[in-house]
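F.,

This is the one I mentioned.
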């Protein structure tokens, strides 16, 4: 005997399907099937399983060292000291920002990158981490085009997988910068946690990037898709990019710390993985 679907069940199914489409930004069901069927192959990773107070693996990471604002009126001096960037002995890398006078700057922090050590064109780039928080705190997991050695920013391209204004600890942004859409006028989308903050628990931040689009995810939830046709300027995402992790203090994106901004502030990274 065939089971008949009651009209109420059909209505329920239709409503559920409509909600799914709305929640995933208007993508069609076949888009999700393509995402689900991808067979990613790990090409690079760092699990940060070193000893406590050990610096990041220098075969995988470079250190940016210095101050001067970094083009954004930032206040920190980036160092390569273990107190600013080191493993915790529990499988994490910890980047720590301090309020301290150092080399003429009022704050210290760290910024590391894979330039010249690992660069990849297309694939899935992800990191599982907990952010810092507080007014004027600016953590980021992002990428720059390897052509920055021969082409100036933003011609080289920039993909910000995750950046957060510390005064809004429940909201992150996924952004791209390129010629004609950079600085204060990028292509960007926010994602807010409905209940919670990004500094209290680990979350997985990722992009999946191919020749025609870049998808942005939080905890494998697709919240933004930027397609080549969405870009009014030049599409500059057709060459390898390298990875950057940092905490900036102050700057044009977040404003400046206040007396209520607690220090030290930590970004705790469980792992970074790249697939193709």
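My design for it:
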């Amino acid at each position: 005997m065939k089971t008949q679907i009651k009209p109420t069940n059909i209505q329920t199914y239709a409503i559920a399907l409509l909600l799914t489409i709305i929640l995933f930004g208007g993508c069609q069901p076949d888009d999700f099937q393509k995402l689900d069927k991808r067979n990613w192959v790990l090409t690079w990773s760092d699990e940060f399983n070193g000893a406590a107070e050990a610096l990041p693996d220098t075969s995988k990471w470079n250190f940016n060292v210095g101050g001067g604002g970094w083009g954004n009126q930032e206040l920190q001096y980036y160092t390569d000291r273990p107190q600013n960037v080191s493993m915790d002995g529990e499988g994490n890398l910890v980047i720590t920002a301090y309020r301290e006078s150092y080399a003429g700057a009022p704050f210290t922090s760290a910024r590391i990158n894979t330039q010249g050590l690992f660069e990849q064109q297309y694939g899935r780039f992800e990191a599982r981490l907990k952010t810092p928080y507080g007014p004027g705190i600016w953590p980021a997991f992002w990428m720059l085009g390897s052509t920055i050695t021969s082409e100036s920013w933003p011609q080289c391209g920039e993909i910000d997988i995750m950046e957060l204004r510390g005064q809004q600890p429940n909201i992150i942004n996924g952004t791209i910068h390129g010629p004609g859409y950079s600085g204060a006028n990028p292509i960007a989308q926010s994602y807010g946690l409905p209940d919670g903050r990004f500094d209290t628990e680990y979350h997985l931040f990722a992009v999946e990037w191919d020749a025609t689009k870049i998808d942005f995810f939080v905890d494998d939830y697709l919240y933004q898709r930027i397609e080549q046709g969405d870009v009014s300027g030049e599409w500059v995402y057709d060459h390898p990019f390298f990875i950057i992790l940092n905490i900036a203090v102050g700057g044009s994106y977040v404003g400046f710390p206040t007396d209520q901004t607690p220090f030290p502030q930590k970004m705790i990274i469980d792992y970074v993985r790249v697939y193709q």
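Residues 7-23 form the longest helix (17 residues).

Talk soon.
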